[in-house]
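anyone seen this seq b4? input:
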Amino acid sequence: MSVESAGAELDRKFWIAMALFAILAVLAWFTIGDGTFDVEGRPVQVRLVPLVVLGGLALRTILARKAEKIRKDSQ
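predicted toks r here
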């Protein structure tokens, strides 16, 4: 496998991962009921918890892709 085809494969996997994160976020939003709990005296919607987790995972995926591109460019 050449370097260019490996990069194209990583880009394809990245966009598939981003689409799956978006689908999971939409599913979480519509399947989790309305409810709140207190965090340091402030009400937080239960729906926001999985969105924050998925957002963190998406951010980690974005940063890993950027790091891989930097490593590839430095070689």
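The longest strand covers residues 36-39. Residues 17 and 23 are 10 Å apart (CA to CA). kinda curious what u guys think
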